[in-house]
Write a structure and sequence with these properties.
By secondary structure, this protein is of the alpha+beta class. It is built from 17 helices and eight strands. The strands form two sheets. Strands 3, 4, 5, 6, 7 and 8 form a six-stranded mixed sheet that branches. It has a two-stranded antiparallel ribbon with strand order 1-2.
Amino acid sequence: MRTSLLAADPEVMRTVLRALRPPPGLAADDRPAPLTTEAHRATASVVIGPDAVEWAVWAAERLCCFVLENVPQVGGGPGPARKLRQSAESRILDVLVHLARGTEPAHATEYAIAVAADFARRGVELQHALGGVTLGHQFLNETLLEVVDRETPAAQRSGAYRAISDLLFRYHNIQLADVAEAYKAERVRWTAGTDAARRATVVSLLGGGGTDPADAGRLLNYDLTGHHLALVAWTAKSHLGRVRPERIRRLVGMLARRLGCGNPLIVTEDDTVLWAWIGRATAFREDDLALIRTSPDTEEGVLVALGDPAHGLGGFSAGHRTALQARRVATLAATGGWLADYDQLCLVSLLTGDPDATRWFIARELGDLAADDDRTADIRETVRVYLGTGGSLVASARELQVARNTIVYRLRRAEELRGRGVRERVAELHAALELLHVLGNRDRLTPP
């Protein structure tokens, strides 16, 4: 204990402490039960007296109500409120003991540290936790100064004011520092443990393990029986080391809100990749997917793979599997925006599972039409669009914004390069063209 730099006349402080007692006429049933240990209160009682101890118990309840009313974010039900009042009670007792001795504390009480850890586990933001500490300081300061005004002569109040305000100011700073440190330490520990448990549960579900779906749903706080839209979000290679994980989470949260859904299930693979599921009771329709595809909500350097909508426990795994496939193709693709959509990439995904076989297939079906130059690329695109329109010269010319004769010329040139007609092995030709349309170059199938 350190001696306070501004100590009041000891007799004046004793007068203030002797005046501390619960309001007269307060029925026994209306008096809050103490929440600190009997030993804790007995130690304080030796210094400040039993009436002041009872006052501290009563004042702690009022302080707690004041904080919960003004910072409701620190609430959470009877259990957290009890911890908060327990901390307030220990804090008030501590302050009164130091006022009586003319000393100041070096650390926050163990109860205050416990509440800080509880805040961290419940996800209460640190700013609200510290705001509660500050409001408690304000309440206690005003309450004690009211007692000084009521119980001491005017000439003696100045010293008491200074001693109380000085101690509470120092105590407040100690509380803020200790609570913030305890909160951050617990948040790191709790988040790591929770994330690990959630990830282990998800991995077990995806692997078809023996995890009970009902238990898993409770742990994950996610309805596994509903409809799912799976995502994989990751940091682009060009931005590695420059994108914090919080930005990846933020983008997924924005996409979920765009669909009118609550918090998505998010599991971290590592600092650069996370898995996510947006869930709801009703099926995801094409209009919903369009909201994702046209979303203005993006984060620089963050890419997203969109899986197929699916339902139930099986769909939980299937959607994730398709999102992973979309991401795999996105890493091979020549160009592309922030979103890799399995719906648009499913064929390429199926055809690129074996890179050597894919390269052979492209060369076999396209021949010289697979050449990596701009003129041949224009010819390939013309054939791809022509086949996609069902062989319509008019529709192809409209989509490519070229003359009909240009389409005819390019088709003829494609047949010369390929060594066979564009109406031969149409399915195979179209598939090979789609592969190069997405990949840009078959050499991209070579792992980096």
